Amino acid sequence: MNNLETMSVNAIRVLSADAIQKANSGHPGLPLGSAPMAYELWAHHMNHNPKNPNWVNRDRFILSGGHGSMLLYSLLHLFGYGLTLDDLKNFRQDGSLTPGHPEYGHTVGVEATTGPLGAGMGMAVGMAMAEAHLAAIFNKPDFPIMDHYTFVLGGDGCMMEGISSEAFSLAGTLGLSKLIVLYDSNNISIEGGTDIAFTENVQKRMEAFGFQTITVEDGTDLDAIGKAIEVAKADKKRPSFITVKTQIGYGCPAKQGKASAHGEPLGEDNVKALKENLGWPTQESFAVPDEVYENYKALAKDGAAAEEKWNALFEAYAEKYPDMKKQWDVYYSAVDADALMKNEEFWAYEDKAAATRSLSGKMINRLKDIMPQLFGGSADLAPSNKTYMDNAGDFSKDNYAGRNLHFGVRELAMAAMANGIILHGGLRPYVATFFVFSDYTKPMLRLAALMKLPVTYVLTHDSIGVGEDGPTHEPIEQLAMLRAMPNVNVFRPADAKETAAGWYLAATSKETPTVLVLSRQNLPQLAGTGKDALKGAYVVSEAKGNMDGIFIASGSEVALAIEAQEKLAGEGINVRVVSMPCMDIFRQQSKEYQESVLPGNVRARVAVEAAADFGWGAYVGLDGASVTMQSFGASAPGGTLFKKFGFTAEHVVDVMKQVIK
């Protein structure tokens, strides 16, 4: 390593240490230890252009160990992505561009929000899947217009989390050779040496998953790191896993190799000692020599040249293959919401009872031709979730052009991969499992909400209607859990028209994940449903006279509420039935619209939903009541369970009468 490169690596370390010290908060250990591999990668092996961070064919870099965010911020500053020294000085401060963990959409150059360990690993696999699929669709001989790598850097914590094993198991099965993992192996965790809880041979595990494994014994050796990356790129059959043996807190005499380097500022004296030990020319905070900036500036020009070369290639491609260029524009554009709204075939339905999971399956197959960028599948449940796209092929290492994804029984990684797919660009992913197992997807759904990613979740078998499988498979609290999450639209349709509305919402969403909660059992088609479902709640069956009360229901219970309404009408009691497929969207409507659906002067209200009542208080008020689940379910036929737990017209009628009294 020549002196200028040494200085360039140490600039990452010094800026990281200074920013963390000024904030009096942060994680210096990873930036100090990983600076050489990050520099070598970004400087010599990664195609990226700071002048156009959104270049479609750039290599992707994800910092899975998001706590080491100052490593990434230092790189973005030095390479000229627009982060200033003032931004670094405001690390972890309110409103700054340098939050504690990297946030996609907030800081230019950050490819994914990371922090939950291992999440970046799963998202990197999704990005590599997207690259492989788009390459299979669009590349032509001599025109590799989709041709880039996905690099992800993480440490021992990322490798301990189960999500990484889930994701890498599939990555190996799929032979994603453009995926390269950099493992910052320093044998230290927060509580001490990793041997207190983590003694496995990680390389053997990755080998078993189907990865090429490479080891760099000295994490400060740029040449060795560079050769390892080139060996990784040369393997066209397997993803690669590069173990780089580092020392946490490298360069700080009092902290190097110790757990205390992980998650606390070094301290002023230790920052001073770090700079002295590294031979840094000044003790001044945030001071980087001009020649170091010039080096980074020259390196950045290589990325600009790479994009310029690609732009010329793409221009020639568009000229030779104009139909493919049109298709490319479709993939990289939002669906025409107005055209979809007016598409009669999309909204058409048969007037016969059907499970909303089956109706959703029909919607997916209607959308697949409207949206060729639709790309998705299930966690080994496609026949039950009804998520298979007919005649669209299966995505595999033998056919990356296939559109049906087989995630295997890996719900957590599946949700992370969906995030990676949509972050990559050019595709709209959907994922699926049983609703009760949304518990397994929730951390990555939360990241999708944070990143404003319109991923679609198809979650079927939505209630005690699951029946004989019993309480382990019957969701009770999951609706409340997902409704509690900001920026998620939880949509539980009652019939075909509402299911179409749910898919319209999902397909046209720009920055909100959509959760479609679907029934296993057949539901009747209802006369009053329609596109008003897109308002979140609406009057599905009006009271026959002066309104004595209001039923509010979702999904399979809307038909039950209408049945109860008819019985009450026979006794001279007039109630309105409101279908509320999506509380989240209803809350976004005007106060005037909300009042028109749920008039404030009608205080006799009963919510009917085969799930926990948490959240319904906002709509039924202190004077209302809920016919909901107060316990876990049981194992019996679904019809038996609905009677057992009070979901009958007679019981719902009795509850409304009590409320009216």
Automatic annotation (TrEMBL):
- One example GO MF annotation: metal ion binding
Query: Which keywords belong to this entry?
Result: Calcium, Magnesium, Metal-binding, Thiamine pyrophosphate, Transferase
* Binding of thiamine diphosphate, residues: H67, G115, P116, L117, G157, N186, H262, F437
Q: Which residues form the Transketolase-like pyrimidine-binding domain?
A: 354-525
Question: Could you say which cofactors this protein requires?
Answer: Co(2+); Ca(2+); Mg(2+); Mn(2+)
Site (Important for catalytic activity) location in chain: H27, H262
Name the positions where substrate binds: H27, H262, R357, S384, H461, D469, H473, R520
An annotated GO cellular component of this protein is:
cytosol
Q: Which InterPro entries match?
A: THDP-binding (IPR029061), Transketo_C/PFOR_II (IPR009014), Transketolase-like_C_2 (IPR055152), Transketolase-like_Pyr-bd (IPR005475), Transketolase_bac-like (IPR005478), Transketolase_BS (IPR020826), Transketolase_CS (IPR049557), Transketolase_fam (IPR033247)
Q: Name one GO biological process term.
A: pentose-phosphate shunt
Q: How is the cofactor bound?
A: Binds 1 Mg(2+) ion per subunit. Can also utilize other divalent metal cations, such as Ca(2+), Mn(2+) and Co(2+).
Signal peptide (from-to): none
Q: EC annotation?
A: 2.2.1.1
Active site annotation, chain numbering: E411 (proton donor)
Q: Note the Pfam families from the entry.
A: Transket_pyr, Transketolase_C_1, Transketolase_N
Q: What class of enzyme is it?
A: transferase
Matching PANTHER family: TRANSKETOLASE (PTHR43522), TRANSKETOLASE 1-RELATED (PTHR43522:SF2)
Family from the record = Belongs to the transketolase family.
Q: What does this protein do?
A: Catalyzes the transfer of a two-carbon ketol group from a ketose donor to an aldose acceptor, via a covalent intermediate with the cofactor thiamine pyrophosphate.
The subunit structure is: Homodimer.
Protein name per UniProt: Transketolase
Taxonomy, top ranks, is:
Bacteria, Bacillati, Bacillota, Negativicutes, Selenomonadales
